[in-house]
Inverse folding.
């Protein structure tokens, strides 16, 4: 089973002056599509529901008419990088929306994550940050010394300079290098002052690989039915179901008994994917993930690809980040107090691929899973992801949601709008 998760976040800054274009314009990737009237009515209430964690508040604002994926961790790290250069109300709003209570503690936490997520043979999770200045736009300005120290020491970020001529090639090359060549088009030009990019790359193998396939039917959100191929397996999984929701946990990483000692996954890494059927996207699923129990389950999961890129500025604005996008934004620590900057775009792009060909760092034939020991009279639960489902990729030990998304349309039906 091959799973590749690629994520890029980018934030663009512009000089604050009357001739500049307002925030939320000139994005490098397609902006989120319009949503249904019913969904639009709920957006404000969802954004203001501060009882939900950041990941689920943002998830409630995602589109209903296409598949999507985003990384709460990547966006939170990007907001933290920006907040380190902000002051007063601008900083307060950034930290509040991202659920960061203490910026110094989170800086240290982020540094710990960057060093923890390393190549372990069967699991690879890489985090990289970069910050770029456009020399043509900022001839007299540079990053503040204290900000450069924070970014360099705590976040191990690359600080670079580009021109309008070489910005596209330079930044996209950096993106490609830090996503194993999977994403190389985060920017289409050099029309920006400053560009912050956070990249995540993940590749892993299921602990219990899928060994068979079955043809079946997937019913999308619009009720359209499409015949597709499902991956199939029967094994012992953490599982939960009630009258409203079904949840399945699919852990990553080779079983400990067959790990190569030279590539043993550290105890600090425990990553799993959760598939949730019938879940309300405005729910906090955390309580459910704590009550899963071990069951014998027959699983059907589609082979699928989700690619989503958008400017998240509108969503972040609805969640409460307003000062950073205004002309009076306070980024004195980042650029100095003599010139005003504001956040223009928050570009976020991710690609998820799931198939049965084995992980990039792993040869499937090297590991043949043993059939589960199931008694003749033991009940086998059924988990068929043949309708729209939410997926969550989580670091269980750090209780951190790495990726969150929804698969609601097959390739044939994804362009169908409500």
């Amino acid at each position: 089973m091959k799973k590749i998760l690629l994520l890029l976040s980018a934030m663009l800054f512009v000089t604050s002056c009357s001739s500049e274009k307002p925030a939320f314009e000139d994005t490098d990737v397609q902006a989120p599509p319009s949503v249904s009237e019913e969904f639009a009515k709920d957006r404000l209430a969802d954004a203001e529901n501060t009882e939900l964690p950041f990941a689920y508040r943002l998830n409630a604002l995602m589109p209903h008419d296409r598949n999507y994926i985003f990384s709460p961790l990547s966006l939170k790290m990007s907001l933290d990088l920006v907040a380190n250069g902000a002051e007063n109300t601008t900083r307060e709003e950034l930290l509040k929306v991202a659920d960061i209570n203490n910026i110094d503690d989170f800086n240290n936490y982020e540094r710990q994550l960057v060093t923890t997520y390393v190549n372990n043979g069967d699991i690879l999770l890489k985090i990289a940050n970069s910050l770029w200045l456009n020399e043509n736009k900022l001839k007299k300005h540079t990053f503040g010394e204290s900000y450069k120290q924070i970014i360099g020491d705590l976040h191990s970020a690359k600080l670079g300079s580009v021109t309008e001529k070489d910005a596209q090639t330079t930044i996209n090359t950096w993106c490609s290098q830090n996503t194993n060549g999977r994403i190389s088009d985060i920017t289409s030009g050099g029309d920006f002052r400053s560009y912050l990019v956070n990249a995540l790359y993940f590749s892993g193998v299921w602990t219990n690989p899928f060994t068979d396939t079955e043809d079946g039917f997937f019913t999308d959100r619009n009720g359209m039915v499409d015949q597709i191929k499902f991956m199939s397996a029967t094994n012992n999984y953490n599982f939960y179901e009630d009258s409203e929701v079904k949840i399945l946990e699919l852990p990553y990483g080779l079983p400990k008994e067959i790990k190569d000692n030279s590539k043993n996954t550290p105890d600090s890494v425990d990553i799993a994917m959760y598939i949730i059927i019938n879940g309300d996207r405005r729910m906090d699923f955390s309580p459910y993930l704590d009550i899963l129990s071990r069951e014998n389950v027959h699983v059907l999961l589609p082979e699928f690809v989700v690619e989503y890129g958008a400017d998240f500025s509108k969503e972040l604005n609805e969640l409460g980040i307003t000062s950073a996008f205004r002309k009076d934004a306070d980024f004195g620590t980042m650029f100095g107090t003599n010139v005003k900057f504001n956040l223009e775009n928050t570009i976020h792009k991710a690609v998820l691929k799931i198939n049965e060909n084995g992980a990039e760092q792993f040869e499937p034939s090297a590991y043949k899973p043993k059939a589960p020991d199931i008694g003749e009279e033991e009940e086998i639960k059924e988990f068929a992801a043949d309708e729209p489902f939410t997926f969550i990729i989580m670091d269980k030990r750090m209780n951190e949601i790495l990726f969150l998304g929804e698969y609601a349309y097959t390739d044939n039906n994804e362009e169908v709008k409500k």
